[in-house]
Amino acid sequence: MQDLPGTPLSAAEPDRPPARPHPPRGRSRAVLGLLAVLVLVLDQASKAWALAALTPGQPVDVLGRVLRLSLIRNPGAAFSLGDGATWVLTLVSLAILGWVLLGVRRVAGLPWSIALGLLLGGALGNLLDRLVREPGPGRGHVVDFIDYAGLFVGNVADIAIVTAAGIIMVLAYRGVPLGGHRTRPARGDG
User: Is there a contact between 40 and 121 (Cβ–Cβ < 8 Å)?
Assistant: First the structure.
């Protein structure tokens, strides 16, 4: 007998598909960790190469003026914003790092693992520069060397961070939580 009007007689709803099992969290965390380490190693290796091979003020054309290698030491953020607040950028990097590490506990899907792995590796790459490079700990300048048509100069860590931001925006738009299941149907889904 029904307790309340409109309550289904059976516990299951026949028109709803069965829930998918969560992907293994261990595999998701492994992908995230490996990707973060890969980004960090590529970033630091490319910066070491740039410091050894490039001279500040002497750009090297790769694809004409559209893509050049131009070594700078950036005390600020993207577009050299915040030049006088390097220590604030260090704190922001630490906050991002903390947010990602909290998310690692909940991540259970490949898209989020990739996004957070890229974000973690990129944040660590630029944070490491701020901690160990001149002029001193917490105030270090980030090594940038990839010049995009004179609009801005970045590095491998920046590429990873921007890619992660794009993936996170798509996942958020589609309603995919860190646990790996969409909370609302995407456009075009029933």
Answer: yes
15: annotated active-site residue: no
Note the pLDDT tens digit of each residue in 4-56.
Answer: 666 555 555 555 555 555 556 688 899 999 999 999 999 999 999 999 999 99
List 43, 129, 144, 147, catalytic entry: 144
Is 144 one of the catalytic residues? yes
pLDDT one-digit tens code per residue, 149-173? 999 999 999 999 999 999 999 999 9
Nearest to 146 by CA among 93, 89, 72, 76: 72
Q: Which helix (H) or strand (E) holds 145?
A: strand 142-148
Q: How far apart are the first and last CA of the chain?
A: 32
Integer Cα distance of 118 and 113 in angstroms = 8
Report whether 155 contacts 47 (CB < 8 A): yes
Q: What are the C-alpha distances in Å from 159 to residues 10, 63, 75, 148, 181?
A: 52, 18, 18, 12, 27
pTM for the complete prediction? Answer: 0.77
Q: Which residue has the tokens 């001279």?
A: 55
Highest mean pLDDT among 30-39, 68-77, 84-93: 30-39
